[in-house]
């Protein structure tokens, strides 16, 4: 099974990059399924029904979320009907939507699990380790991919060691900065962070000057999504469907043609 995973899509610029680049990426990697993290898809925080449907229309098969999952109230109205949406199973409020999703990929089931880390992250009711232990026996003989949405690389690496024999892939998201540590651990594909699909000239997607103001002590500074061209960060994983073990992992990072910083 050839899986394409797109890192946190930030705002309209990130969505535009997906629209523009995904068709050719899908062809280039001969992908069977495309998963994307959409926790920042609506103006940098959360997701709406309209944007959920927009992302699916671009060829994304399933959307994971993160700590910003419930930032837009709109989600409460459609999350229980959204059969291609996965929310972090340990994020409060629990009990809405689904924390794991099984989809059919050309006749083979794929289970997508979404969990938040608890190091430097709020609003969780259990650790990712407790959450995964609770469900790990539900998916024997199925390919399982975990989007571990967490701040700390240590927590993500430790999680991969804990569950490398149980799942086929542990894909880190949330920091918006792609790490270069992709590897296959005993048949489990792993990367600490896929990175962000959003404005290249930004501080993890946000307007640079506003972030500089905030760090300079101006508490009223806003965090709006940056303008400018978008980068796309992703990951390609191939899983042997017989053994359910990963056989290939490759980072994807497409930067805008003009990388120069143009701010005055
Ligand atoms: Fe994010
Ligand atoms: Fe996040």
Number of separate helices:
6
Q: What is the percent of helical residues? A: 10-25%
CATH architecture: 4-Layer Sandwich
The whole-angstrom Rg is 17 Å
What's the CATH topology name? Answer: Purple Acid Phosphatase, chain A, domain 2
- Ligands bound to this protein structure: fe (ii) ion
SSE topology string = EHEHEHEEEHEHEEEEHEE
Shape descriptor? globular
Number of domains: 1
How does the helix and strand content classify structurally?
alpha/beta
CATH class: Alpha Beta
Low-confidence stretches: none
Mean pLDDT, nearest integer? 96
Counting DSSP E segments of at least 2 residues, the number of strands comes to 13
Assigned CATH superfamily: Metallo-dependent phosphatases
Percentage of β-strand residues: 25-35%
Largest sheet: 7 strands, mixed
Distance between the termini: 47 Å
Structure description:
With 264 residues, the chain is of the alpha/beta class. The chain has a single domain (2-254), classed as Metallo-dependent phosphatases (Purple Acid Phosphatase, chain A, domain 2, 4-Layer Sandwich), CATH 3.60.21.10. Helices cover 23% and strands 27% of the residues. The protein is built from six helices and 13 strands. Strands 1, 2, 3, 4, 11, 12 and 13 form a seven-stranded mixed β-sheet that branches. A six-stranded mixed β-sheet has the order 5-6-7-8-10-9, with helices on one face. Strand 5 (100-105) and strand 6 (108-116) form a beta hairpin. The chain is globular. The chain starts with a strand and ends in a 10-residue tail after the last strand. The relative contact order is 0.17. The structure holds fe (ii) ion (2 copies). One fe (ii) ion is lined by residues 39, 66-68, 149, 174. One fe (ii) ion binds at residues 39, 66-68, 149, 174.
């Amino acid at each position: 099974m050839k899986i394409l995973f797109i890192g946190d899509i930030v705002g309209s610029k990130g969505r535009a990059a997906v629209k523009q680049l995904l068709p050719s990426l899908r062809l280039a990697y001969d992908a069977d399924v495309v998963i994307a993290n959409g926790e920042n898809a609506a103006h940098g925080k959360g997701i709406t029904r309209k944007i959920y449907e927009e992302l699916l229309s671009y060829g994304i098969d399933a959307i994971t979320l993160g700590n910003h999952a419930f930032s837009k109230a709109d989600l409460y109205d459609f999350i229980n009907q959204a059969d291609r949406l996965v929310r972090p199973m340990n994020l409060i409020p629990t009990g809405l939507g689904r924390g794991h999703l099984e989809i059919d990929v050309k006749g083979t089931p794929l289970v997508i699990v979404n969990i938040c880390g608890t190091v430097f992250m709020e609003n969780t009711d259990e650790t990712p380790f407790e959450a995964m232990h609770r469900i790990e026996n539900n998916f024997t003989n199925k390919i399982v991919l975990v989007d571990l949405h967490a701040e700390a690389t240590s927590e993500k690496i430790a999680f991969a060691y804990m569950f490398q024999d149980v799942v086929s892939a542990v894909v880190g998201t949330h920091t918006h900065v792609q790490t270069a540590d992709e590897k296959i651990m005993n048949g489990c594909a792993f990367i600490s962070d896929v990175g962000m699909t959003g404005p290249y000239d930004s501080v993890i997607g946000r307007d640079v000057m506003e972030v500089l103001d905030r760090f300079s002590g101006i508490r009223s500074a806003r965090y709006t999504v940056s303008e400018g061209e978008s980068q796309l960060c992703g990951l390609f994983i191939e899983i042997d469907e017989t053994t359910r073990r990963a056989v290939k992992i490759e980072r994807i990072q497409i930067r805008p043609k003009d990388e120069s910083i143009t701010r005055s």
